[in-house]
């Protein structure tokens, strides 16, 4: 059994494992390479209606998830000595990066809180040290789809899940660039042939072509990433050789 354990706190546990029960992640889950538990937050409510939210202090639209109910759910799922990071899927969180995904994959797992309504009481974020994580500049109906995205990104990096551990080495974001284009049979598709260099058998030229294409795509589509890439490359060249 892998040490990676995911606990998802949600109002909709039936959404899990969802896509995580299929393909590579699903097979890894069946093998016990990782584990997943979905915790129903309403189980920690104290009234007969299983209420987990209330009106926002100061007025305003919508409802806010209560700090006391969430605290009970978190504490029951993760005792004080649990080393796993506590994540809150939130549009105002720090953007999820491949670097953070790799950090999580190398760790013991994660506790993931899925917000609903207008959000969660700020005091639970502070009291339990929740790390707010965003998967993009858009709004979802709840944190569950975001949690599925995060866990999919992490689980595929666990040892043995992808089969070939080098499969992800040249993927987008792994080396600061977007991924180069891919081609396969047929050699000619509607008058569009595979680039000659890819069938040349010259591995050095193929590597150079892929690198150049990755840089071109990144420069065109993600100038922010390309600027960071240029800075990193300049720093490497300027670093003293040992």
TrEMBL record:
Transmembrane segments: none
GO molecular function: tRNA (guanine(37)-N1)-methyltransferase activity
Binding site for S-adenosyl-L-methionine: 115, 135-140
GO cellular component: cytosol
Catalysed reaction, written as an equation: guanosine(37) in tRNA + S-adenosyl-L-methionine = N(1)-methylguanosine(37) in tRNA + S-adenosyl-L-homocysteine + H(+)
Chain segments carrying region Disordered: 216-242
Gene3D superfamilies assigned to the protein according to its UniProt record, in alphabetical order: 3.40.1280.10, tRNA(m1g37)methyltransferase, domain 2
Domain of life: Bacteria
Annotated keywords: Cytoplasm, Methyltransferase, S-adenosyl-L-methionine, Transferase, tRNA processing
Subcellular location: Cytoplasm
InterPro entries: Alpha/beta_knot_MTases (IPR029028), tRNA_m1G_MeTrfase_C_sf (IPR023148), tRNA_m1G_MeTrfase_TrmD (IPR002649), tRNA_m1G_MTases_N (IPR029026), tRNA_MeTrfase_TRMD/TRM10 (IPR016009)
SUPFAM superfamilies with a match to the protein in the record: alpha/beta knot (SSF75217)
EC numbers for this chain: 2.1.1.228
GO biological process annotation, one example: tRNA N1-guanine methylation
Pfam families noted in UniProt: tRNA_m1G_MT
Family of the protein in this entry: Belongs to the RNA methyltransferase TrmD family.
PANTHER family listed in its UniProt record: TRNA (GUANINE-N(1)-)-METHYLTRANSFERASE
Record text on subunit structure and interactions: Homodimer.
UniProt function note: Specifically methylates guanosine-37 in various tRNAs.
Descriptive protein name: tRNA (guanine-N(1)-)-methyltransferase
Species in which this protein is naturally found: Pseudaminobacter salicylatoxidans
Gene (UniProt): trmD
């Amino acid at each position: 059994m892998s040490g990676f354990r995911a606990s998802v706190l949600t109002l909709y546990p039936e959404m899990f494992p969802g896509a995580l029960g299929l393909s590579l992640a699903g097979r890894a889950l069946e093998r016990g390479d990782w584990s997943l538990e979905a915790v129903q937050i309403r189980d920690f409510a104290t009234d007969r209606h299983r209420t987990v939210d209330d009106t926002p202090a100061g007025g305003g639209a919508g409802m806010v998830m209560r700090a006391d109910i969430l605290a009970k759910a978190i504490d029951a799922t993760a005792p004080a000595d649990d080393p796993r990071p506590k994540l809150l899927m939130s549009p105002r969180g720090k953007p999820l990066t491949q670097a953070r995904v790799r950090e999580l994959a190398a760790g013991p797992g994660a506790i993931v809180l899925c917000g609903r309504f207008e959000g969660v009481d700020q005091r639970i974020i502070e009291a339990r040290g929740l790390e707010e994580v965003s998967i993009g500049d858009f709004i979802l109906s709840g944190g569950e789809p975001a949690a599925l995205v995060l866990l999919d990104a992490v689980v595929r990096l666990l040892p043995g899940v992808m089969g070939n551990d080098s499969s992800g080495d040249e993927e987008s974001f792994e080396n600061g660039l977007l991924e180069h284009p891919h081609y396969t049979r047929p050699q000619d598709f509607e008058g569009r042939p595979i680039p000659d260099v890819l069938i040349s058998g010259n591995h050095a030229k193929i590597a150079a072509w892929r690198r150049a294409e990755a840089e071109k795509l990144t420069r065109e589509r993600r100038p922010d990433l390309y600027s960071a890439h240029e800075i990193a490359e300049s720093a490497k060249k300027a670093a003293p050789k040992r």
